Amino acid sequence: MSPTVFRGLPCRDYAKVKRTFVSTLVLFAALLLSSRGVWAAPPCVGDCNGNGEVTIDEITLGINIALASSSIDPCVAMDSNGDGAVTIDEIIAAIFNALNGCPSLPTASPTSTVPPSPTPTAFDALRVSGGCRKPGPHGLVPCDAGIDVTVWRCEDRSKCPGRVEARTRLGDGPTDMRGTFSIAVPRAAAQGALLLMDAPVDNAVLYRVMDFGTVGGGGSRRALDGGGIQPQAEAVLDVTLDPSSEAGVRLLDENDVASFADTGISRVQNAARDANLATVFDGLSPAQGADLATMIARNDPQVQQAIQ
Hints:
This protein is of the alpha+beta class. The chain is built from eight helices and ten strands.
């Protein structure tokens, strides 16, 4: 439902109606979860993080996107018809999938999907590690513990940043109290591929970074807590998810990732990070931090040169 249905109401009344609407739908979802339904829905609407199930949090995220008519980037799986918006029908379909589970998908051909190994050993795994940071009262602070960081392999570079169906999930893992994570993914599936790492920093914002599945990474750099830059470790793919990394992915997406060589992808992301070394994120929300970093990077001469 679009907020336009409430036009003409005073701001105070609109906010009240909006809160009531969200509460009603969430309550509806909770009631349905306690008494299973029987209608049909396409696979797998509402599975925002691609883990094969739909949760109340993901349904709430879809409702918030629908009410705000905002970008579907935080949960492209809610947009089942690909029209760039979330509708009531799609929310209902997500509720169905929460009740009954995601439908089983046909087995993909080996050329399109590489099934991840649940417990790869040190000899056949690539370890993706690093940290997640978001704006705090005074600079960037660690992301909350328990945020699920997902590692994806891009199958279609042009659509990889925004479409789940354009990538293959290789693995995921939670952040700890310091905002750090370590995820082992199959080396054979990741080797030489363009990878996308993402983390839902809050209910409406993803922080993302792209890199390559080679030992030591593809050349993008990790930001240190002190603001400096160091090369990636040789034994792991070491990445940072923060407003600057999200800015780099947004600019690559805006200019078609497929139009860049591998070195160009790394160059754009590094330039976006360099452009934001002095950016002050104090007191901003995760969304505001990402928007500010993107604006600064987009207008930076070094970033513009890297994009050309």
